[in-house]
Amino acid sequence: MKKSDLKIVKTITDVGEIKALELDILKKFDAFCTQYGLKYVLTGGSLLGAVRHKGIIPWDDDIDIGMFRPDYDKLLSLADQMPEDCRLFSFELSKDTARLYGRVCNTEYVSVDRYYEEDLSSYFGIDVFPLEAVPSDPQEYAKFSKKIRLLRRMFIFANSVPFRGSSFLRAYILKPLPIFICHLIGRERIFKMFRKEIQKRDYEKATHIALVTGQYTENERYPKEKYYRIVRLPFEDMMLPAPESYDEYLRLLYGDYMKLPPEEKRHPHHTFDLYKIER
C-alpha cells in the first residue's frame, strides 16, 4: 500500500501509545495461540524486557516472538482464522511484505518505513520469528550464519529505496550499488535462496535451533530441548512463555544483560512513521 492512498485519521508519535497498541495485539495473539495449541516464546529484547523490566523495555518500541518452525507453519495455515481486527503477514502468504518473518498486525494502523519502497508499507504489529533448525557443530554454524546474514542483507537491499539512509555516506556511497544489484536479482528469488538454505536441515532431527532472521544470528544457536522447556514470566499485566534457561540464553546474546545501557542509548530505534487510518 502507498502512503498517498491512505486515509490518515491520526499520526501516532507517543511511545506510550505505540506500546499500548502492541500489547493489545500481543494479548490477542497469545489467546489465539492458546486456542489453537501453538507454542511460542519471548525472544531478544522482549525476553530481556520480561526479565529485567517485567515488560517492554522502557525505551524499546517493538515486541519479538520466537515460534518453533512446526508451529509457525501451522500459524500460516491458520492465517484466515485471525481475530477480526488482526491480520497475519509473511512472505509465504503475500509477496507485498518486506520481511523474512511474520507479523501479526492491527489493520487500523499502518507503519511506513522511511527506507523501504513505499508500496511495501505494512500494517502495524508484532514480529513473529520462526525458530529454525541449524547446524549443531559450532564451525558449521558459523559458516551457515555468515551465509544467512548475507542473504538477509540482500533481501533488505531488494526492498530498499536508493539514496536514503541515516547518513550521506550510507545513502549515496555505500548503499546505491548493492540496492541496484539486489533489485535486479529480485525479492522473490532472494527469498527462495534464503528458504533453500534453511530447509537443508530436518527440524525433527536437529539438536539446535535458532532465530536466524534477527539481529544476533551468530549468537542465537541454542539446544532445541532447552528451548522447549518453557516457563511463564511476568510481562506487563500478562504471564508469557519463555525458555526456562532464559538466563543462559540472554547471556549468550547480551553478556551482562542486567546492566542498563548508557542513557544516550536509551531511545527507540524504529525507522517508521505510524498512522491510524480509515478503513
Outline the structure in words.
The protein has one domain. Helix content is 38%, strand content 24%. It contains nine helices and eleven strands. The strands form two sheets. Strands 1, 2, 3, 4, 5, 6, 7, 8 and 11 form a nine-stranded mixed β-sheet that branches. Strands 9-10 form a two-stranded antiparallel sheet. Helix 4 crosses helix 6 (176-185) and helix 4 (138-159) packs antiparallel against helix 7. The longest helix has 22 residues, at 15-36. The relative contact order is 0.19. The model has no long low-confidence stretch (mean pLDDT 89).
- Total DSSP helices: 9
What integer is the average pLDDT?
A: 89
Largest sheet: 9 strands, mixed
Secondary-structure element series: EHEHEHEEEHHHHEEHEEHE
| Total beta-strand segments | 11
- Which regions contain 5 or more consecutive residues with pLDDT less than 50? none
Sheet/helix structural class: alpha+beta
Keywords:
single chain, two-stranded antiparallel sheet, 279 residues, alpha+beta
Write the layout of secondary structure elements.
Blueprint lengths: L7 E5 L2 H22 L3 E3 L1 H10 L10 E5 H9 L8 E4 L12 E12 L8 E13 L3 H22 L8 H7 L1 H10 L1 H12 L9 E4 L10 E2 H4 L2 E6 L2 E6 L2 H9 L17 E6 L2
Parallel strand pairs: 3-6
Antiparallel strand pairs: 1-11, 2-3, 4-5, 5-6, 5-11, 6-7, 7-8, 9-10
